[in-house]
Write a structure and sequence with these properties.
This protein has 19 helices and 24 strands. With about 575 residues, the protein is of the alpha/beta class.
């Protein structure tokens, strides 16, 4: 009953001794919920062994029926966790992050007629979950915790007047004097965090059609916790909690990363731990690691968080042909230690731009990365703040360089995320971009990195070993299938090594490290350069070493100096 005590303590931190009846009812609710739950327990810290594949259901293969039909492909790739980008009911004014109903999947993702019953709709989703689980593929999805759509029934009711019971689910004021230090997140698209409605204003951190929830009202906290439990019962293995740094508002602050926000996240985590331990709660906090690490708490907040700065620093390292930016980013100066049960999630590309926000890079880094990777002026996002391009485009469609970037991500500490299509070198989708401009009336270049998979073309390409798609897929799927069985790459420590040139000076073009647990050790050597590189390690090669791609290191006669081809990588079981 320690977790129940914790829930009571967290509640008191937020609301004092008030609302004890509501808390008592909630505790009674979760006890009954747990007793009636009929799902398999989660393995401890399963997310550390995950390789995540991020996708839009409709763009991947139309709907959940289509996605289910392609689980063989996902299994062949080697991934064991799917991250579903927004799937909950939404008017889709912000790509699904404007949720209209937290307990309903968007109708167009189910492949059913409009007349289908709620039971039929949920059956489609549950059958997909069951099929994925039978293949040992776990499912996580996005859930916006800070705000709803203006079309959510709570807000529809709240607008009816001050006496409406849902009025206090949102933040209202007679003027716009409150929270003046809260920055406007969507500069150029929003001019204020307040929006008029009748004789008052409501508060929003994102778009004006996304009113912020009011967590000072304990009923909001309870209902949002119940929303998580609703999908837990359907078989969902974890949640990407969107926009969590903004949950609590306090006048006179910037309303970000406040202590009460951390208390709320701990409440959600304790609720999940009580009902189904090891359910993943993933923090979507676009902050520096020193801020994100706070969302791990003492191992009692989020299980995982994104390591945003690592992505641009990988690109910087490749541009300079020098591994130092990666070493520095993962040093304790930038990346603090995290609790033993926590994990970083890493990525090369995502559903948005390659972010060059100054939170993650310096002005000099931004200019360098932009110069080396923004190969088309159309890709420029917000005048240098990012690059809207797929990985294959950034790497000038070079299969070896694409594979090298994956080798780096798959062998550095953290749980790697593959963005759908990148595994076969999907290119920017100009047609989809232009279609979305017509539909949304917004010239958002991030649409370039989305777009549908053309399965007929892809399947033909994969059957042709000389095609670009086949070359990329073969390299990446081989790495992924090897990586998923190596515990040391998901859970182990990292030991950095120096490779020396023949003249004894350090060769920074060779990124070298050992990943290790008490049971196993792996030597990773990667050539970041577009030219052949020679290196020497303070290690004596052993006859028991095994190169995992059956491509042994090219050593000289004395087994001291080795040679790597441009963009070559080797993984060695020591």
């Amino acid at each position: 009953m320690e977790i129940i005590k914790k829930l009571k303590s967290l509640w008191k931190q937020l609301y004092g001794n008030a609302y004890e009846h509501e808390l008592s009812n909630f505790i009674h609710y979760i006890k009954n919920f747990k007793n009636n739950l009929n799902i398999s327990p989660q393995p401890s810290e399963w997310y550390k062994d995950a390789i995540v594949y991020s996708l839009y259901v409709d763009l991947f293969n139309e709907n959940f029926v289509g996605l289910r039909q392609r689980l063989d492909y996902i299994q062949k790739l080697g991934v064991n966790c799917l991250w579903l980008l927004p799937v909950l009911d939404s008017p889709m004014r912000d790509a699904g992050f404007d949720i209209r109903n937290y307990k309903k999947i968007r109708e167009e993702l189910l492949g059913l007629s409009p007349e289908a019953s709620e039971e039929e709709r949920m059956t489609v989703f549950k059958e997909f979950i069951e099929d994925a689980h039978q293949r040992n593929i776990r499912i996580i999805f996005d859930i916006a915790m800070n705000h709803t759509s203006e079309e959510h029934p709570w807000f529809v009711e709240a607008k009816k007047g001050k006496s409406n019971p849902f009025r206090d689910f949102y933040i209202w004021s007679a003027n716009t004097d409150l929270y003046k230090d809260a920055r406007i997140i969507f500069k150029g698209m929003e001019t204020s965090n307040w929006e008029p409605a009748d004789d008052e204003y409501f508060f929003h951190r994102f778009f004006s059609f996304q009113p912020d929830l009011n967590y000072r009202n304990p009923q909001v906290l309870i209902e949002m916790a119940k929303n998580l439990l609703f999908w837990l019962e359907k078989g969902v293995d974890g949640f990407r909690a969107d926009a969590i740094p903004y949950l609590w508002k306090e006048d006179g602050t910037n309303c970000e990363n406040l202590p009460q926000t951390h208390t709320i996240v701990k409440f959600f985590r304790a609720t999940l731990d009580f009902v189904q331990p090891h359910t993943l709660l993933l923090a979507e906090a676009c902050q520096k690691p020193i801020e994100v690490v706070k969302y791990f708490g003492d191992g009692d907040e989020c299980n995982a968080g994104y390591h945003f700065p690592l992505m641009p620093q990988i690109y910087k390292a490749l541009a300079l042909e020098n591994g130092e930016p990666i070493l520095y980013t993962l040093s304790k100066q930038v990346t603090p230690e995290i609790p033993d049960n926590a994990q970083w999630f890493t990525f090369l590309r995502c559903h948005d731009e390659l972010s060059l926000e100054l939170v993650y890079v310096t002005e000099q880094d931004r200019a360098l990365i932009h110069q080396n990777y923004c190969h088309d002026s159309q890709w420029d996002f917000r005048k240098g703040e990012g690059i809207s391009a797929r990985l294959a485009e950034l790497m000038k469609r070079n299969p070896d360089k694409i594979a090298l970037t994956y080798s780096i991500m798959l062998t550095l500490p953290g749980t790697p995320i593959i963005y759908y299509g990148d595994e076969y070198g999907k290119l920017n989708d100009q047609a989809y971009y232009e279609e979305q401009i017509r539909k949304t009336k917004k010239d958002d270049t991030r649409f370039l990195v989305r777009g549908k998979i053309d399965w007929e073309t892809l399947e033909n390409d994969l059957e042709n070993p000389n095609s670009f798609a086949s070359q990329v897929f073969h390299k990446i799927s081989k790495m992924v299938n090897i990586r998923k069985d190596i515990k040391a790459l998901g859970r182990g420590q990292i030991e950095w090594l120096e490779a020396l040139k023949p003249d004894g000076t350090k060769n920074n073009a060779l990124l070298v490290y050992i990943r290790k647990t008490n049971e196993e050790r792996f030597l990773i050597i990667q050539n970041l350069s577009s030219s052949k590189q020679e290196g020497r390690l303070a290690l004596q090669p052993s006859s028991t070493w095994k190169e995992l791609f059956d491509n042994p290191l090219d050593f000289d006669q004395n087994l001291q100096t080795f040679t790597l081809k441009p963009f070559e990588y080797v993984w060695i079981r020591m």
